Amino acid sequence: MDYATSAPIPGEKIVGMWQFNDDVAARFDTEARTHIPHYEHVIQMCLDVALHTHDRQTARVIDVGSATGYTLEQFFTAGFKCVQGVENAPSMIKRSRMRECVIFSDTFPRRGVFDVVLANWTLHFIRDRAAYIRDMYDAMSDGGTIILTDKMATNTLVRDQYHAWKRSVGVSAEEIARKEAALAGVLTTKPLEWYLESLRNVGFKDVRVMHEAYCFATLVARK
Q: Which of 86, 189, 193, 215 lies at 20 to 30 Å from 131 by C-alpha?
């Protein structure tokens, strides 16, 4: 998704050139697996949680930042009957496996009530993510489940280990540096504690960290 290009950060001196354009969309699936630790595992965890907590015949599932539709496809294949995505990058929607299920929007859909909300690797591109969390909460059913994964603010040691992992899966040092520069000021991080507090403040219950790897954390909570 390309939310971050809509407004600059006040006082930000360096803003990268990253956009979810045709070039990025064409290589997105490969890039996700080589830049996001345990990408497929996290999606499988989301599916396992949804299967455990909700009825696949009736649950309404939405994937925020649905990209090329891999997550939507996994849920549909597992038998979930009502799945949709929200995405604001036309290039991603054009390449989506499930584009007929995707809403083009910069904001969270207001219509309907959702039982499972997935917000993986997306909110860190959104400036006012606290407001977006509130919008997701307001659109969820009582007892609904949210699963959220983002890149978190961390220290140099963890960041260096993250870069070492990238190199171990074939990403060159030059590509690591290029992408980091392109994302500067576009992808912005907040501490894990900020996410835990923000989810609780809007009313989510039993907020837990379900998975962590290097700079990334996956949280699960119930409304």
A: 215
